[in-house]
Amino acid sequence: MNAKTHSLGRFDITVVGGGVMGCSTALPLARAGLKVAVFDRRGLGLEASGRNAGSLSPMIKKSELVAHAIEGYQMWMSSKDWLGADIGAHTKPGMIVAYNQTEAEALERLVTDRCANGAKIELISGKKAIEKEPQLSSGITLAAYSEVDGHGESNRTGQVFNIALDQAGADIFSHCDVQRIEDKNGHFEIHTDKGIAYSTKIVLAGGAWLEGMASWLGFSLTVQYKVNQMIVTERAPTLVRTVLGVQNGLLTLKQATNGTIVIGGGWQGHGDLENGAWHIEPEAVVRNLQLARYVIPQIKDLRVVRTWLGLEAVLPDYLPAVGAVPDVEGAYVIGCCRGGWAIGPCLGSLLADFILDRELKLPIFDPGRKIDAKPFAAAGSASKGM
Amino acid sequence: MTLEQDLIVIGAGPAGISAAITASQHGLKVTLIDEAPIAGGQIYRATPQEWTPNTNGSPDQDLDDGNSLRDSLSKSNITHLTNHVVWAVAPGFEVRAVSDSKEIKLTAKKLIVCSGVTERILPFPGWTTPGVIGLAASTNLLKSQQILPSREPVIAGSGPLLYAVANAIIEAGGKPVAIADVGSLFDWVVSLPKLFAAPALLIRGLIWRARIFKARITVLHRHHVARVYGDDKVESIELMPIDANGTPLPKKKNIKIKSTSLIVGHGLIPSLEITRLLKAKHVFRAERGGWIPELDAFQRTSVSGLYVAGDCGGISGAKTAALSGTIAGLQASFDSGMITEKIFQDLYAPTESKRNKAERFGKRMGKLMSIRSGLLEGLTPETIVCRCEDITYGQIMDAVNAGAADCNEVKAWTRGGMGPCQGRTCGETIAEIVTRQVGDRDKAGFFTARVPLRPCTIDALAPVCSYDDIWNSDVAKVATAILPAENTEYKNSKK
Amino acid sequence: MQSHLPQLAPLRRECKLPETKTDLRIRGKFQRGKPVEFTFDGITVNAFEGESIATALLAADIVSTKLSVDGYPRGPVCHMGSCQECAVRIGGRKTLACKTKVSQGLQVEIDGLKK
Ligand SMILES: Cc1cc2nc3c(=O)[nH]c(=O)nc-3n(C[C@H](O)[C@H](O)[C@H](O)COP(=O)(O)OP(=O)(O)OC[C@H]3O[C@@H](n4cnc5c(N)ncnc54)[C@H](O)[C@@H]3O)c2cc1C
Ligand SMILES: Cc1cc2nc3c(=O)[nH]c(=O)nc-3n(C[C@H](O)[C@H](O)[C@H](O)COP(=O)(O)OP(=O)(O)OC[C@H]3O[C@@H](n4cnc5c(N)ncnc54)[C@H](O)[C@@H]3O)c2cc1C
Ligand code: FES
User: B53, B368, C54, C97: least CB-packed within 10 angstroms?
Assistant: First the structure.
């Protein structure tokens, strides 16, 4: 079989990239009766979508995304109904703590802003915070509290979508590397290491690799990525009830249903587009853990069993790209959203509605918009040095 | 605290000690790290410091060999860190180790990994019953703890350790009820010529066999454990005949034996977490223990400055381990400019020929211990594969049947391999199961290596420090530099 | 080591005291350390300095030393710190019995969460 000429089939629509964005776009399309193919060079959901912290935290998303985040939250909570499988999402209260005046003021501004956009968050005193989360250390100046937060077992993203897509009749090409796409005016040729697929429409959903994919179609999109590290402990008796964070973002901490405690906060490891996220920065693990034990002193007795890392893609304005590729008929992109695992199902179903010409429940995010914000010094390179 | 070295050697077994001594003799500043309290590695694992040898005790070759290695180590200039677990390694090289209470950072341009092996125990129904222990584990108990794993165990599995353990148990006054060898007598006989490469070891093996024969212990060749009975303790063990590939032969009769102990092992697996973390190239060689780092004749990996010696470079036994360690130490000295090409060649040539000879024996032993895929045919859907998370064979098969096509996919879907042993116990089994579906081990892949290399308490890894210290660390600056503007007020206010 | 971890729920105990004691320790080659006593889940166990907790439990015929995540009995397998099946609780921390030496008065608890 010659990969240069071997035909993988003809499809109405082909999704390139099998993360949460690609899969949740593909699923409604397949259910609408279209012949859908999903390509991923690894398995489904093995990159960011299967390696993230699984926080849902809908109330603290960027203002423009609060409504989407609440919708995404509800979708994950009811995943059994629309996805056919329970992703293990649970509601838990969310709490963000501030340890000094500067942090407290910033937190106050954040809460005011989000509440103006429909979020339900209250500010509570440090004393009240400890009542709600008895294991917290003292010294909290102010806390934000929301009843509506939660998390899910994001490591199972690939599994649940694999099964659902299969049942919906989509063709899944995993371990199939897409190398380029040719626009043949009216249809697309998708060239992979296993052969060529022919498709009327195309959705690019490559996560951190989206910039390269967009360039196949001559569309320039500035995608940046971070190399986020995560830490998980062994199972422990119930210690933490909330999805916990520190105002400045360097700590997220929660206890999964199985008792393990998942610790993150955007500490940077090392990686690049060629090798993926590939090695931990040990010092950042140590600092992340120091912050964690500062906030919840008792976790000191637990053992860390694993750390891992993944590439999180963002656009310079920290809003996603969901919509049509400018000037290329039949081509769409989706991705680059902070908190993208939580919001993914909502964005995917919106893009599917858009492609199917259905009415949109919420606004989408024009990939061709002018982005004023300056790109940050690329995280990948910024953290490359030792 | 950062300690700067010329060379770091991880693992103080025969390979690591030899590598460190050689490099140190040529002037390198060397640190040798091991989690054990005393140097020696697995084969020369010493008895506790609290004990004193009785002068009238029977001689022990391994103990003597180990003592002489330890002796040369103590006379050298090497910094030997005992009781230090290496929990992380980063390119460059940075080695992070943790002792009871302190976390340290070491850096060096050269790194020699001599992390040895772990034992492969393939599952069978009932293998999680307390009282089922490893063959290698038993050598450890017998040697360094001076205790019998059991007086009347059934011993099963593959490779020379079967007979070594049976022999040691007899010597200490026990009597194994039966030995079930996955291999056939023929497998041993065809190995003989290669085994002549190490006559002393061959003779030792023959003495073991003679003693086992004399004690009238049943030796069943081509047999594997069908099932272990008992709830909170082993009560009896059923053995079944298998073919050369390990597949059960249902037409032949199984044998049920009463015993409260099963000692079992199916070979050794190189410990590759560190070379994996550093993205060295690996190749699959079943007869060398499975995945091994790709090495040249000088113990160099595909990563510049990274060397591997000993069994973690492929199963080959203690003798080869020590010689390959010497070669790695020589090469690291040469690469660091400490010796001339001439000196290097003069020292390398004789060591290499000795190493090659020892390797012939070692490789043959490795082959006897290589994995036989049929051994998994006896699993039932309820058999637990991942002990840490209690994930069954049925759950793994469900994932594979639903489309999980490599080890990491199975791990993400089932949690198999996500527990505290980090997949060390179930990794091989899951890889074999996936391989059955996708064709070969290359496609099945392997669990991505993750730090910490051993579970470590947060207390040990992350000592208490002030809030500002955390924020002022360089790594915190890297992380906050890329936060959205709305989050960075604290950062700005600190300026 | 004082732990502040919340108290564990009572466990399904599966470890019985052995009826007969045949000592598995090999005598002759070494003079073991001083005799010590420690407790495993309240049961007194005799041992010698230098021995690992796993060794001492084996000598006392206690083979089931923890409960798995689904509540099944388990015991040490590898005796080299790899399999994690020998985990016990000391001072509220999970500790490997095969890598930890016995000491006089040590209080060792069975590990495992009741389902
Ligand atoms: C460590 C970490 C923690 C996070 N924590 C959270 C959190 O708590 N909550 C939250 O909501 N979000 C979180 N996120 C963000 C979230 O995970 C992502 O926003 C989201 O998963 C992005 O989904 P995606 O489908 O766009 O990308 P991905 O999941 O990365 O999917 C892209 C896919 O494209 C495939 N691909 C790339 N190139 C090719 C090619 N050439 N051919 C074929 N396939 C290709 C890749 O293999 C990959 O599977 C976190 C991210 C990380 C990394
Ligand atoms: C339990 C066991 C018992 C064995 N018994 C025998 C026997 O009786 N006879 C025989 O011929 N062969 C035995 N073997 C095989 C043995 O591996 C080799 O014969 C020989 O010891 C290999 O030497 P080495 O130097 O390559 O590795 P090893 O001797 O295994 O030395 C590796 C060293 O690295 C250390 N190490 C590994 N990872 C880390 C880390 N992250 N941090 C700190 N230190 C680390 C270990 O503590 C160990 O001391 C046994 C193997 C095992 C696993
Ligand atoms: S017995 Fe395996 S880790 Fe202790």
Answer: B53
